[in-house]
Amino acid sequence: MTGYNQAEIALRQNEAYLPPAIEHAPVAIAIFDLEMRYLAVSRRLLEEYNLSDRIIGCCYYEIFPDIPPERKQIHQRCLAGAIEQCDEAPYPQADGTVQWVRWSLRPWHTTRGEIGGIMMFSENITQHKQTEIALRHSEERYKSLISATSQVVWILPPNGLVSDDNPAWREFTGQTWEEFQGWGWLDAIHPDDRLFTSEAWEKAVKNSTLYQVQHRLRRCDGEYRYMLARGVPILETDGSVREWVGIHTDIHDQKQAEITLIERSTLLRSILESTPDFIFVKDLESRYVAVNSNLANFFGKPIDDIIGKDDSELFPPDIARGIIDKDRQILTTGTIETYEEDVSYGDTRSIFLSTKTPWLDAEGNTLGILGTTRNITERKQAELALQQSEEKFRSLIKAISQIIWTADSEGRVTNLTDWRAYTGQTDAEMSGFGWLYAIHPEDRQQTHQIWMQAIENKSVYETECRLRGADGSYQYFQTRGVPILNQDGMIQEWMGICINIHDRKQAEMALTQAKEAAEAASYAKSEFLANMSHELRTPLNGILGYAQILQRSKHLQEQERSRIDVIYQCGSHLLTLINDILDLSKIEAQKVELMPTDFHFPAFLQGVAEMCRIRAELKGIQFNYQLAAELPIGIRADEKRLRQVLINLLSNAIKFTDTGSVTFTISYALEGKIRFEIRDTGIGIVTEKQQVIFQPFEQAGDRRRQNEGTGLGLAISQKIVEFMGSTIQVQSEVDVGSIFWFDVNLPTANEWVKTSQADDYGQIIGIKDCRPKVLVVDDKWANRSVIANLLDPIGFEIAEAINGQEGWQKVCEFQPDLVITDLLMPKIDGFNLIKRIRESEAFKKIVIIVSSASVFETDQHRSLEVGGDEFLPKPIQATDLLQKLQKYLHLEWLYEEEKTVNQQQPEIADLVAPSIAEREILYELAMKGNFKGIIKQAALIAKVDKKYIPFAQQLHQLAQEFQDQEILTLLESYK
After folding, report:
1. 467 beta partners
2. Which of 799, 806, 803, 800 lies closest to 824, judged by CA?
3. What pLDDT was estimated at residue 627?
4. What is the Cα 823 distance to its own chain's centre?
5. Could you give the CA distance from residue 967 to residue 919 in angstroms, rounded to a whole number?
6. Nearest Cα to 870, choosing from 849, 846, 847?
7. 97, 530, 611, 912: least surrounded by Cβ within 10 Å?
């Protein structure tokens, strides 16, 4: 608040204090009446205008007669009620100077509210104005300086943020004012330099300290230039920062020179340190000035401990004396010397190759010696060893009984002394390439070709051939020749040897013949077994087929049905024996390949366990099934082979256990492997038999039990598990029991297919809403009859053909929905029939199931490659055939109980669910895939209350079908 404001306020507050307030006011004050006569003035006004207090009562215009008219107009406006003011007004003085005044005029009022006159307030601001003008001139000079300099000069406020335009920055960086204001200037700094630049600036601003940093700044042409940025805080008297003044200096060329110098120094140091040589510099007194680390390591001292010393302080006197004398010779003669030195240092004796040269300055003055020394001890030792080796070789050549030879660079033999003695050829006969005529005629061309190729490629010459002796007999020799190259890489000569390998070759030939004979016998055995299997499977197809047909009959007496069951069981046992023999044959021939697929692990294990549980219960022993928690739901493995191994091990355990139990356990082993363990309380196995049982046709136990199998099961299982990367282990004690186990890696699978088991819907008696047409093509009446008698009663329309040619005619006439064909038939076989159907535009979509007794996998693969949809081995199992028909023809069966596969399920809304606790138990069982536990829990729930029975029945059915996702969905619907 200015002085005249304070006076004005004081005047208005209390008229009683008005005269003293005016008199002592810090500004010039004058009060006038309506006639512009002075009523009161401040002492400041009298002093500034050089007036006396006698002006009271005088008219303003009398005191200042030269007042311009404009001023009078201002007075009149104020007397009329206006307020007039001016922040700065110049008043020229008589001495030529100018006084600057800030003034204000306003009316004052009487107690009746009428205008009584004017109050005038004024303040001389000349000094302030002069300071302002001087500051402006200073800023203009500074801006001119910034514009004129080639560097980037900047001024920033105390907070360090850019708030004013800087033309120099814009011109250098190409940034606009909008881009570099605030912290925007950082965008012109190199990305790698921004962080430390901003941190240094923030630290300087925070602590009001000097800012200095080097960074790269992007020039307007896009090139980054090294700059030295330096900023200084300008402080107020109280120590606070008034502003920052700084400059960016281009130091790019200097920085590049420094970088180049550093790079060269680094390169030189790298060369000095990477070379295996010793490098050193000595002065005129032979004192070390510089050494590399290799030389320091040789002395076993730090580099600093070597600098300044001469060789007398580092070597024994006799060695040091020789080194120093050589240094003086070089300094005297000014020549470059290269020589070998034999040096002993500590317990080590070494040979060095040294090169020393005078060290000169730019003017040619000698400053000392530059030297390099290479340790050639190993090379010298190698040369000595080579010399000794050559002497031994020469002695060996003289003593050896084999044929030694040499040849020139073009392959012409130059020394065949031993050759002459063995073959009986004369020098004339051997000359040039005449030696080739001692080679067996059948080997001659190949021997010559290999020899010429070795000469052309400068490579080792090596071959085996038959060489004729002087007695005319041929014997096998192994010939090897090595090219000796000169410094230019060209062949200088050949050195070689011929070694008699006749006895070894004869043994190899005998072994090869024996191997071929064994392979032929093995192939013949496999062919025999395959053909035998085919011949046995063909009648078995009729036996087992009709046994299954008769089992489905409703008119059999119980005794008759029992006899048919015996026929089927005996036929199935015979089929198992055939399959075991074939499996062993394939395994021995290494023709078994694992076929991994993704499948539902809990359902697979449940199926194996339930199958074996029935066998155990029929025998009257307890069967335990233990499943570890958190086993994977889906795995990837060969489902068929894994089931084969587990069923074999479990069947053996049941077979050799009369009382007690069999326990099937699945758990985790080491390294994330899954362990399958079968433990029984059976008769046990003596120690000496525990490894024999894994050999083909070997069994342990009493003769009665041995006769129940082929003795191949464990051998086959062991081989399969070995293919899986594991081994079946056994522990057993006689009359206590046995434990069989193996650990395998089973990768977790997400896209698994649930293992299906036939639901107990009863016997199939028909097909819902259709009568599919099936063509059976087979040259054996029994095979056609079995399929026809299986399918016709159910509701299929059947047609038959005795070969492929007739089969094609029936396809055209009968137009079946599905064809079941054999492979090996007269006229047109099954392969060509399938091919013809697939090439036909009208019938190419017909489903084709190949059914054959052939056990050759090539036949099976080929049948699918030419267009078959499925392969069913003979003998055909009725359940397998019906499953395939249902799958490919999308059939819905009618059962004896009039129950359909797609039976309408009750709505979830109609089911009353048990308590939350019961549902949580069910949910946990479903997450583990424990379908057996779900079935038991469902039975318990049904007993609690009748209203839960529909829910329990639905749960039971889903568990039997292994529908774990549907079970989870059902349980979650009640949350």
Report:
1. 439, 475
2. 803
3. 85
4. 48
5. 11
6. 849
7. 97
Residue 415 and residue 421: Cα distance in Å, rounded? 12
Q: Are 11 and 3 in contact (CB under 8 A)?
A: no
716 closest CA partner among 586, 810, 622: 586
Q: Looking at the whole model, is its pTM more than 0.85? A: no
Which token pair is 8? 């004005």
φ/ψ bin of 668: left (φ > 0), alpha (ψ from -120 to 50), beta (otherwise): beta
SS (H, E, C) 164-212: CCCHHHHHHHCCCHHHHCECHHHHHECCCCHHHHHHHHHHHHHHCCCEE
State the 10-residue block means of pLDDT for the chain, 975 residues long: 43 49 76 92 84 89 88 92 90 80 91 91 85 77 61 88 89 91 93 94 92 94 93 89 90 85 72 75 89 84 88 84 86 85 71 85 86 82 76 62 79 77 84 85 92 89 91 90 86 87 87 76 62 64 71 69 65 63 59 78 84 78 86 87 89 90 91 92 84 67 47 80 90 90 90 46 80 94 87 92 94 95 91 94 93 73 89 83 92 69 48 81 76 80 77 81 76 74
DSSP string, 82-115: --EEEEEEEEE-TTS-EEEEEEEEEEEE-TTS-E
pLDDT score at 58: 93
Q: What angle do CA 481, 485, 490 make, to 5 degrees?
A: 115
pLDDT at 10: 42
Closest CA to 393 of 254, 303, 497: 497
Which residues does residue 576 pair with via DSSP β-bridges, in sequence order?
none
From the CB of residue 432, how many other CB atoms can be counted at a distance below 10 Å?
Answer: 11
| Contact status, residue 764 vs residue 894, Cβ threshold 8 Å | yes
Whose tokens are 């007039």? That residue is 84
Calculate the dihedral angle through the C-alpha atoms of 299, 304, 308, 309, rounding to the nearest 10 degrees: -20
Look up tokens 């070689």; give the residue: 496
Residue whose C-alpha is closest to residue 102's, from 201, 3, 176: 3
Dihedral sign computed on CA atoms, order 480, 484, 489, 492:
negative
Q: How many angstroms separate the CA atoms of 119 and 242, rounded?
A: 40
78: its two tokens: 């104020």
Burial class of residue 832, CB neighbours in 10 A (0-12, 13-18, 19+): middle
First to last CA, the chain: 77
Q: Sign of the C-alpha dihedral, residues 504, 506, 509, 510?
A: negative
Q: Are 551 and 586 in contact (CB under 8 A)?
A: no
Longest dimension (CA), the chain: 168
Instruction: Identify whether the C-beta of residue 339 lies closer than 8 Å to the C-beta of residue 354.
Output: yes
Q: Is 907 helix (H, G, I), strand (E, B) or coil?
A: coil
Here the tokens at position 389 are 């080796």
Q: Are 286 and 324 in contact (CB under 8 A)?
A: yes
Give the Cα-Cα-Cα angle 176, 177, 183 (nearest 5 degrees). 105
pLDDT value at position 518?
Answer: 66
What is the rounded (10 degree) CA torsion for 442, 443, 448, 449? 90
- What are the backbone dihedrals phi and psi of residue 365, each rounded to the nearest 5 degrees, phi first? -80, 140
Q: What is the spatial distance between Cα 882 and Cα 789, in angstroms, rounded to a whole number? A: 13
Q: CA-CA distance, 272 to 279, in Å (whole number)?
A: 7
Q: What single string gives the DSSP state of each residue in 35-89?
A: T-BEEEE-HHHHHHTT--GGGTTSBHHHH-TT--HHHHHHHHHHHTT--EEEEEE
Closest CA to 164 of 150, 138, 193, 143: 143
Residue whose C-alpha is closest to residue 578's, from 853, 814, 878: 853
Kindly report the number of other CB atoms within 10 A of residue 790's CB atom.
20
Q: How many CB atoms lie within 10 A of CB 683?
A: 19
- Looking at this protein, which amino acid is placed at residue 562? S
DSSP E strand boundaries for 295-395: 337-345, 348-360, 366-375
DSSP string, 620-681: T-EEEEEE-TT--SEEEE-HHHHHHHHHHHHHHHHHT-SSSEEEEEEEE-GGGPEEEEEEE-
What is the structure's pLDDT at 193?
94
